[in-house]
Amino acid sequence: MKPHEIEQKSMEIITKELGDRTFQEPEFSVIKRCIHTSADFDYADNLKFSSQSVRQGIEAIKRGAHIVTDTNMAFAGINKGVLGRFGGEAHCFMADEDVALEAKERGVTRSTICMERGANLSGEIIFAIGNAPTALIRICELIEEGKIKPALVIGAPVGFVNVLESKERLLSMKDVPYIVAGGRKGGSNIVAAICNAMLYEAKKEEASERV
Amino acid sequence: MKPHEIEQKSMEIITKELGDRTFQEPEFSVIKRCIHTSADFDYADNLKFSSQSVRQGIEAIKRGAHIVTDTNMAFAGINKGVLGRFGGEAHCFMADEDVALEAKERGVTRSTICMERGANLSGEIIFAIGNAPTALIRICELIEEGKIKPALVIGAPVGFVNVLESKERLLSMKDVPYIVAGGRKGGSNIVAAICNAMLYEAKKEEASERV
What is the pTM of this model? Predict the structure, then answer.
């Protein structure tokens, strides 16, 4: 079996095991890819989408939106080839030395600085948070301060401290397109899966529009 | 709260929620870090360790073992700074162009070739499989053929096709130190967490040995 056949078969198994439950597209493609990357069926229940957020994410990608993430693992997992077809780039500033320096000077987390760096990029931005609640909180602040208007915020920090609070804050905001991994769950693999689900959908739609 | 305080608090919460259950060290540090990275308490039950395998992994790291993984995300997540303190390096050959070429020529997966490249490295090797069942199967074959004798095999491919079979094969082997994520679960975040748990333990032990 070739890799794409294995993936197709996996998606069929996931769909079958979800039984009679019905999900709308394109949200379902995001849900399936999160289960595919984790084998954790909780993602059938715990992903929260603002109205049309996946569609908005796909359209932003097609217009060349950039993706800014707070985790090097998600950065490694995001399909930068497909993103680049549309003119977008993926960014993660976590390993930058000057980020560490500024974080120390200001007494904030590196994730906070990373989001500020992302906010300074030009063009449309999808913020994809898979690790740090402080990154997600900084994004919410920057939106409230009127400094950014993200194409989409993926709020999926994973963990046990401040994680729920940061997600609640995003969920309470008006007019911000979001995809949130509810509860404690999320992580770099989930963030990469959400981004890739939208990227592959954008690629598929582009191919069918060309025919 | 600083990052290390958040991590400590998270580990306390995980320990508390595991209630009266008792786990041995150093296995428990691996279990906790897998839960920490996924917020998935299934990892309290589904990790399988051969006798003393975590101890063997830690000691191999202290002697400068390399880590070879089949996923760029795990490679990104493994703490290469700590690994380097002991003289080890992390390797992932998945993105190499000549790996893709050879895989195509021979009609096998890139993951298969990656493991063969890893097998050719000198020194002690920890193989850390977080994606491809074919990578894990190739490792088992190379062991059976007497071509390699890994310090440790981390068998944690995630998914729905051929995953269980590849793990069963590893579990059935004699005299191979293993850590396996049972069932369908695993993935790049889990593999990185398992490696990092051992790395941090090695670092801690080194520090206390110095005192």
Answer: 0.97
